[in-house]
Amino acid sequence: MxxxxxxxxALDVVAxxxxxxxxxxxHHHGETVTGxxxxxxxxxxxxxxxxxxxALAADRxxxxxxxxxxxxxxxxxxxxxxxxxxxxQGTAAPFVVVALVFLGxxxxxxxxxxxxxxxx
Length: 120
Description:
Layout: H1 2-26, H2 33-58, H3 66-86, H4 93-119
């Protein structure tokens, strides 16, 4: 079970990083370290908050199930966008939708991949 959580957590981090790098590249913002970090930190904080909320609610480390997937996705996006507002970064409605869909699909796919891989 601990192995599953570690793998899911690693894939969640990769998904957030991919979201940031792809988004910056598609808007021609460049891939400088400072640029990526400035876009990454609100979503990384949101991801940490999502994991913490799932852990507190379950009274154990974050799980890899469907409820954890939904909660982690929602909290990552809501907290990430809130922190972007506080930092003076943009949060246009299409960006919120893209973040929710992209991260939701990636987080879900990661959990499914880990579940299938550990069964084999």
